[in-house]
Amino acid sequence: xxSDSSALHLSAIxxxxxxxxxxxxxxxxxxxxxxGLGADAKNPDAIKQIFxxxxxxxxxxxxxxxxxxxxxxxxxIDWVPIVAPWVRDLSEDALKxxxxxxxxxxxxxxxxxxSVLNELTGGQDTVAIRAPAHPIAQELLRKFKGGVVAxxxxxxxxxxxxxxxxxxxxxxxMLDLMILDGGDCEVGIExxxxxxxxxxxxxxxxxxxxxxxxxxxxxxxxxxxPGESSSTKQGGDIPRVSGSLRAHYAPTTPLRMYAPxxxxxxxxxxxxxxxxxxxxxxxxxxxxxxxxxxxxHFEEVIVPSDSVAxxxxxxxxxxxxxxxxxxxxxxxxxxxxxxxxxVRDRLQRxxxxxxxxxxxxxxx
Length: 364
Ligand code: TXA
Ligand code: MG
Fold this sequence. Notes:
By secondary structure, the chain is an alpha/beta fold. Helices cover 30% and strands 15% of the residues.
């Protein structure tokens, strides 16, 4: 197929996806972070279908995805008319953040406009919004001409999908689910979430590729951690995000992290494991060194020591390793540093929820 005819083909598929959304159906689509499971943000029945398909409790709010104007010059987008119908007010900080990072992997939480459906906010008074950067997501949103709610397209508590095939394997029983294939997601972990609804300062709710330091550098806006006050805050120098340790993004195979050089310590929790342990090692230091064990076979898997590259492959690696029948998967603890907060958060949750006994205490 020539590139012209494949562009036409894609355009026809997106038109069909738009029709599905208008008819109250679900459409999975790529974003630059992870794949989303989309529905019309103005259709309560369609929103309910998302919760059913994911097995997600109905009080967990969804993100509304909005289009950027066609052929935009990012410097000149006027986000006000795009976002205003969804929110009660738009602060100076909100405008600066949107101008600096949208379209892109940043979600902002606002006080909601009264027209925003309770079904999508989980009954809360706030609404989360983002304009994704992926061209297929943008074309879908532009043609749909409305907001699309989209959680990550995975079953509740499972690893988020970063390819169309991952989405298919999550929803194998939903044979008629339309999935737009946009290849592998570049960012690989979910968007950074900043809460602008809670009064005087923005608060980081979920770490991601865009860090508080980058936000401060580009906009001069200090982002606080939950519970942090202005008296404990020091300029743009943000401490590590502690994050909740609830299970999330979890593989079925047990997963743990090991401290540098302490692979054997990580095994002590699993006295019955005789063999088949996959150990991720940094590409900068691709050897287990002195570590060894008489009865355990370690298989090394190289992972990038750059935080951005690591994030982009994290869920892919977890999914692939989970398929390979290991008894245990070990990942190195990410180093200190804010650029690692997003992956540290996802890995901690994945460890906590991993293993065959995983039950429904996850949060997405
Ligand atoms: O990168 C992403 O954000 C992806 C792609 C598909 O856009 N979406 C995503 O959605 O990760 P989901 O539903 O898996 O995670 C949304 C997160 C949840 O942790 C939810 O609690 C939080 O956003 N959230 C949504 N609305 C909120 C609100 N009003 N206040 C606070 N948190 C909110
Ligand atoms: Mg999710």
